[in-house]
């Protein structure tokens, strides 16, 4: 796992009237950091963040099924299937039929897939995901609760919340990279 730099303690809470804007600015900073990381990953590998995370999971545990990869990435199986097609066409992932059950297809990286992962500096899973993994559990629980409240208030504007929740962040932030 990539080490995320430790930061200074957060500044004091903004005055009441400035607090919503201070929170909004933090969202902007989070998104800007993510976009920069995804741009760097794309420049280094020619792959989207979602594709690199797919490769990382398959590289970490060769022999996963497509369903297992989708579950680990928290994306729909159809999205994972689309990613697999693109990665397989580029010669980065290969499908291997099971010895005992030919219906089961296992995935593994090709040498080119390993090389693509090796070209990327920083977290290949995505900066936000890696950062969340480093938060102490109590902070993560508080953040999850606060974000759940915010999402609940945004639900009227979410046409398909389930689809949005299972779309890779790299695709949401930069759809032109074709992360799906």
TrEMBL record:
Q: Which SMART domains match?
A: HTH_MARR
Which positions, given as ranges, span the membrane?
none
Keywords in UniProt for this one?
Answer: DNA-binding, Transcription, Transcription regulation
- The HTH marR-type domain, residue ranges: 16-152
Name the Pfam families on file: MarR_2 (PF12802)
What is the name of this protein?
MarR family winged helix-turn-helix transcriptional regulator
């Amino acid at each position: 796992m990539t080490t995320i730099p430790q930061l200074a303690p957060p500044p004091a809470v903004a005055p009441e009237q400035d607090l919503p804007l201070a929170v909004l600015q933090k969202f902007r900073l989070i998104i800007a950091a993510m976009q920069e990381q995804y741009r760097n990953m794309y420049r280094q590998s020619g792959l989207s963040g979602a594709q690199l995370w797919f490769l990382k999971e398959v590289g970490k545990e060769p022999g996963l099924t497509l369903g297992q990869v989708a579950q680990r990435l928290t994306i729909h199986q159809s999205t994972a299937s689309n990613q697999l097609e693109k990665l397989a066409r580029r010669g980065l992932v290969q499908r291997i039929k099971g010895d005992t059950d030919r219906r089961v297809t296992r995935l593994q990286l090709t040498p080119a897939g390993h090389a693509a992962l090796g070209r990327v500096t920083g977290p290949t899973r995505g900066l936000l995901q890696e950062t969340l993994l480093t938060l102490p559990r109590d902070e993560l629980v508080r953040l999850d609760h606060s974000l759940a409240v915010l999402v609940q208030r945004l639900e009227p504007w979410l046409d398909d919340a389930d689809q949005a929740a299972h779309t890779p962040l790299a695709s949401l932030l930069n759809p032109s990279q074709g992360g799906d």
